[in-house]
Amino acid sequence: MPFVSVDGRRIEYRAILGSAGERPTLVFLHEGLGSVSLWRDFPDKVARRLGSPAVVYSRFGYGESDGLRAKRTPGFMHEEALDILPRVLDQLGIERPLLIGHSDGASIALIHAAQSRRAVAGLVCLAPHVFVEPICVESIAKIRDTYLETDLKQRLAKYHARVDDAFLGWADIWLEPEFSAWSIEDLIGGINVPMLLIQGSDDEYGTLAQLDRIEALAQGATSRLVLDRCGHSPHRDQEAPVIEAIVGFAHIMGT
């Protein structure tokens, strides 16, 4: 994988070439345990359908990117959205992207669109978080126990060079008592670009209240897709309808 450098530290990324034209670059922002490789070929399939260029990258602590310098704070998603993401986009020459985020990545996309003062073509939010729900904290606590007591760490090590940074860096901040007050609801009103919201009806990390709050507060047009027999990863559990929804959304946007 190639790398970009932020403050002298490496971030791995993968670029997908698109066809000629002025289509926005798709930028994929992974979940709290994700990475370039864990997106698998989903970005390729979306980019191919749209004929758009795309970029997938691993945040610090994930994949082959350099590790964390310190324990994460409740502001870590704001830091990613307003500091790291803009510099990655600048280094790759990306303007006005269509951001496609999953879970924490969707929250980062929302913060970026609301506060970065940079042009964004639109947002696709898969299982976004805009406030902390008990179901999410309970599920993270359970999977943390699994990580410590089973071979989950070894299985994740196939995808992350610094697996404790990836897993514990994510789980431990979400389980901090002070993180229970985390919310970006006050930022959603600052978003005036089109949004596609996608969530599974069996999402073990959040309820449809997340989508309800976004729809109630956003200034731009929103549409939602709720999928049956689908958990926290709609693009894996129900790949085909998710791709169709993204393609339809992009065409409505004129991209």
Can you tell me about this structure?
With 255 residues, the protein is α/β, with parallel strands linked by helices. The protein is built from ten helices and eight strands. Strands 1-2-4-3-5-6-7-8 form an eight-stranded mixed beta sheet, sandwiched between helices. Helix 1 packs parallel to helix 10 and helix 2 packs across helix 3. The protein is globular. The chain starts with a strand and ends with a helix. The mean pLDDT is 97.
Order of helices and strands: EEEHEHEHEHHHHEHEHH
List the quaternary state of the chains: single chain
Unreliable segments of 5+ consecutive residues: none
* Backbone structural class: alpha/beta
- Strand content bin: 15-25%
Question: Approximately how much helix is present in the residues?
Answer: 40-55%
User: What is the approximate shape?
Assistant: globular
| Count of helix runs | 10
Q: How many beta-strand elements?
A: 8
- Average pLDDT works out at 97
Distance between the termini: 28 Å
Spatially, the strands of the biggest sheet line up as 1-2-4-3-5-6-7-8
Question: How would a crystallographer describe the biggest sheet?
Answer: 8 strands, mixed
Radius of gyration based on Cα positions: 17 Å
